[in-house]
Write a structure and sequence with these properties.
With 189 residues, this protein is an alpha+beta fold. Helices cover 22% and strands 27% of the residues. It is built from six helices and eight strands, in the order ββαββαβββαααβα. Strands 1-2-7-5-6-4-3-8 form an eight-stranded antiparallel β-barrel. The N and C termini lie close together (8 Å).
């Protein structure tokens, strides 16, 4: 596939009860075509609407990608992706899929708060980067990090936002996700 174009995705992110703002992510299929296509397919399916940043580690990254509705999560989570080769480093503002092993990417992604080049050799291939609103991403709620006091991913997958709202009400949320600019090249990935 030659001449692959970018797409711009807009998230409206709610940091807390008083603060919401736009975050723009440029998606580069030339960096990771399989991952880029999946991310855009998830956006089109409204997968990230009302999705929480469920894992936030200061000075490292923030993770999202478990849909608030368990049925919506299950629809996509069982469709695993082949790994893209790492062509670009995990630098500050770059977004990559999380994984549980080789060829196991599905719906969870993370945004790097800092340069995390050590993730490159572990196979985390960035699909794009935050081009507007990294200051907002830097403010996502990071108060649930202590052992035993952080979201349990199995419970999030099983119970969705009902579990998170009850036990972790301060988590920052992606209120909406939409594609602002796209090209036909991406849909061919």
């Amino acid at each position: 596939m030659s001449d692959q174009k970018t797409a711009t995705v807009k998230f409206v992110v709610k940091i807390d009860e008083k603060t919401s703002a736009d975050v723009h992510i440029e998606v580069y299929p030339k960096w990771a075509p399989i991952g880029a296509k999946r991310f855009l397919d998830l956006v089109k399916d409204k997968f990230f609407v009302d999705c929480r940043f469920h894992r936030v580690i200061p000075e490292f990254m923030c993770q999202f990608g478990i849909a608030g509705d368990p049925k919506h999560y299950k629809k996509w989570a069982q469709i695993k992706l082949k790994d893209d080769p790492v062509k670009v480093s995990n630098l500050r503002s770059h977004i990559s899929f999380a994984t549980s092993g080789p060829n196991a990417r599905s719906t969870q992604l993370f945004i790097n708060f800092v340069d995390n080049t050590g993730l490159d050799e572990q196979g985390f291939a960035p699909i794009g980067k935050v081009v507007k609103g990294m200051d907002i991403i830097d403010k996502v709620y990071a108060g649930y990090n202590e052992s035993g006091k952080k979201p349990n991913q199995s419970s999030v997958k099983q119970f969705g936002n009902e579990y998170l709202d009850r036990h972790f009400p301060k988590l920052s949320t992606i209120l909406s996700a939409s594609i602002l600019k796209s090209t036909s090249e991406i849909s061919k990935a």
